[in-house]
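Sanity check. The docking grid for hypoxanthine depends on where the pocket ends up, so I'm generating a full predicted complex first rather than guessing from homology. Inputs follow.
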Amino acid sequence: MYEKVEQSAEFLRQAFDGRAPEVALVLGSGLGPLADELENQIAVPFGEIPHFCCSTAPDHAGRLVLGQLSGKTVLCMQGRLHGYEGYTPQEVAYPILVLKALGAKAVILTNAAGGINTEFCAGDFMVFDDHINMTGKSPLTGANDERVGARFPDMCHVYPKALRDLADVAAQQCNVRLHHGVYVGVNGPQYETTAEIRMFRALGGDAVGMSTVFESIAASYCGLPVLGVSMITNMAAGITGNALSDEEVKQMANERGQTFRALMRKVIAVL
Ligand code: HPA
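Predicted complex below; grid placement will be based on this.
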């Protein structure tokens, strides 16, 4: 594994002319256009990078973009892989190991999520205080390479409080309401049943989505601190009585995308 990651990283070091990212950002729904704002940018399609898989999800461009944003050198993953596309948890999480090898000091993982906490509203934002992995799978399954991370890594400090506090400062500065909560990661692609959402609420979940947990686990494993931020694109199944649809999720992601991007620019500025 270590050799594979190093080969991917070495290819990217050359592609990026030796510029190293200070922070990495995985762009979820509504945030994709943020990569286009990077100054002096260099973009590399996933398909050109050794050992990377290509994304099949609609609206996911599938490229790494390095450039300047809010005064920092930022590496954006524009498009990500999901378990529901048929990728293994290892394939989904692989790019995270490469971000660490490239020198990123933290990774910001963003996504669209359904609100389980009834105090949330569609269009709100939530910082991950923690997550619950409901996929039943782990990206760390299989042989372990101690040069990348420990066999049995701790998961109590995936989302350092210092980063969550900075997100609060950024939200205050740009006047955005930012909740804190627990993200429940599911496989999808079907949305949840009403009973599943009731169960997730009883378990302590505040938002639910089909991404991010494999990336968070891999990041923590290889020593990369994570800031997780969800856009609550809809209330989760059964809460409003309305059927869930991808249309609703996409529409809200578009409507609130500009605010999400403003929040991320500010987070990177205060980081
Ligand atoms: N459930 C799962 N994933 C999601 C949702 C949801 O309600 N909204 C956006 N992504």
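Relevant for the grid: The two ends are 30 Å apart (CA to CA).
Also worth noting: The beta strands are 23-27, 39-45, 63-69, 72-78, 107-115, 125-133, 178-185, 207-209, 226-235.
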